[in-house]
Structure formats: structure tokens, C-alpha cells
Write a structure and sequence with these properties.
Elements: E1 3-7, H1 9-19, H2 34-43, E2 48-52, H3 62-70, E3 76-80, H4 84-93, E4 97-100, H5 120-132, E5 137-141, H6 145-153, E6 158-162, H7 164-169, H8 173-192, E7 196-200, H9 208-211, E8 219-222, H10 224-233, H11 235-247
Helix pairs in contact: 2-3, 10-11
The structure holds pyridoxine-5'-phosphate.
Pyridoxine-5'-phosphate binds near residues 101, 222 and 224.
């Protein structure tokens, strides 16, 4: 059974589109609320919830995470960058796991995997700080053997393979198989190093057909397409359909 983590960042993106500059007006009425969507997703089958607090706070706010935690039913996977203040913030929020991601202010969404090899010492320090606090760390990396080896070397127990290239290649039959093979090799290599392998980014209701062939991935973290489909089909249908497509 492949688990489904639901990423609610884009619920916050929608809220910020209207209320970024006036969060406390309208009698406190701001919508939509990522914590509420997270609780609903848990009720209809999400195995976990992911939120990314970015350095520029462009979507999820610290208060969203705190409010979600008050009534959470599954577990919080918190994404942050390697910046010292973000690592400290993540430690203070006490999530069930942390995923370390690269951040580039101009990107619309997380674009590439973390380059651990170029950030070896900072990555090692962050993983140690989380490990000491009892929080498993996941490194969001491209399915590249060197990055997988570096993740294992710095003591990260988990990785999340970036599926963005595969997602882009899905609609091009000449590239699709090669990208899936790259992910499969990364998955197998990661497992051989003793890592738990998660995956995510760009997975939708079409390409999940290929993604589910990576049977040994522990969990897929999926956001944009589930939140998008929930607008037309409702969140329950969106979560349940993705869950069954991952596993049927
Ligand atoms: N995994 C990580 C590490 C991410 O940063 C994101 C969001 O960019 C996702 C998964 C989910 O990606 P998507 O919203 O494309 O499903």
C-alpha cells in the first residue's frame, strides 16, 4: 500500500491571493483555510498532511501550522529550507517529520531537488538537530545516485524523490519510460542504502498511473492536482480517487 500525503500549500496560496495584505480585517473572516482543508483531508483518507513554510511566507503561515496541529488526526510533514532560522522554526513547531527543500525566491513552486553535495555541512547539521529532537528528516532530491549517497552519508533516514521531470515527461511517450526508469533506479538505490523513499511533485490524476508502478515508494506527497480537483469534484472525491489510483 502506497501512502498518500496531502500538501495543502495551495489552499494558502488562494487565501493569500486575496488576504495577504489584510489578514486581520473582515472580522477575522479569511478564506480558504488550509488547516480546515487539512482536517477534512484527514477525515476522507489522507495518511498525512504536508505544509511548506517558505522563507518569504508566500503561502502557508506559521499560524496555519499551529492551528492545524491543535486538531490534527494524522501527522504533519513540514517542509522548510536549510536556512538556520527555518531549521530553528521547524524545531519549535515539532512536526512528525521534516522535509528539507531548496528555495529560490523567483520560483513559482519548488523546482529542483536539494543539492546536498554542495551543502554537505549545513545539511548534516540540520539532520543532526532534527534527529536529536526525535524528528525524522527527509531530503527532497532528484533521483540521482550521488545525492542519494550524500543523504545516507549525512544520516538522513528518509528521502523524497523529486518527480517533476517524470511529470513533465508523462505526456511525451519518448521520454516517459526513461524518466520512470530513472525514478525506479533511484528508488531501488535509496532502499539499498537503507533509506525510506518517499516521492512527490507534479503528480496528477493521469501520471499517477506511472507513479504507482514505483511500488516501493513509501508515500507520495501530492498537492496541486488534489486541491485543483477538489474545486470541481469536492475534496473527498479528490483524495479518495487519488488514493485508489495509487493503489488499485
Ligand atoms: N513534495 C515537495 C517536497 C514539494 O515541495 C511539493 C510542492 O512543491 C510537493 C511534493 C507537491 O507538489 P505538487 O503540488 O506539484 O503536487
Amino acid at each position: 500500500m502506497i501512502l498518500l500525503g496531502v500538501n495543502v500549500d495551495h489552499v494558502a496560496t488562494l487565501r493569500q491571493a486575496r488576504y495577504r495584505d489584510e489578514p486581520n480585517t473582515h472580522g477575522g473572516f479569511v478564506e480558504p483555510d488550509p488547516a480546515t482543508l487539512a482536517w477534512l483531508a484527514e477525515e476522507v483518507g489522507a495518511d498525512g498532511i504536508t505544509m511548506h513554510v517558505r522563507e518569504d511566507r508566500r503561502h502557508v503561515q506559521v499560524e496555519d501550522v499551529q492551528r492545524y496541529k491543535e486538531k490534527m488526526k494524522t501527522r504533519l510533514n513540514l517542509e522548510v529550507s536549510l536556512a538556520t532560522e527555518m531549521v530553528e522554526l521547524a524545531l519549535s513547531l515539532k512536526p512528525e517529520s521534516v522535509c528539507l527543500v531548496p528555495e529560490n525566491r523567483k520560483e513559482v513552486t519548488t523546482e529542483g531537488g536539494l543539492d546536498i553535495i554542495s551543502n554537505m555541512e549545513r545539511s548534516r547539521d540540520a539532520v543532526k538537530a532534527f534527529t536529536d529532537a526525535g524528528i525524522p528528516t527527509s531530503m527532497f532530491i532528484d533521483p540521482d545516485e550521488k545525492q542519494l549517497e550524500a543523504s545516507a552519508e549525512i544520516g538522513s533516514p528518509w528521502v523524497e524523490l523529486h518527480t517533476g521531470s517524470f511529470a513533465r515527461a508523462w505526456y511525451d511517450e519518448s521520454k516517459r519510460v526513461a524518466e520512470l526508469d530513472t525514478l525506479r533506479n533511484g528508488m531501488n538505490f535509496g532502499i539499498s542504502l537503507g533509506l525510506r523513499v518517499n516521492a512527490g511533485h507534479g503528480i496528477n490524476y493521469d501520471n499517477v498511473e506511472g507513479a504507482k508502478q514505483l511500488e516501493q515508494v513509501y508515500e507520495f506527497n501530492i498537492g496541486h492536482s488534489i486541491i485543483s480537483r477538489s474545486i470541481t469534484h469536492g475534496l473527498a472525491e479528490a483524495v479518495q480517487t487519488m488514493r485508489s489510483r495509487l493503489n488499485d
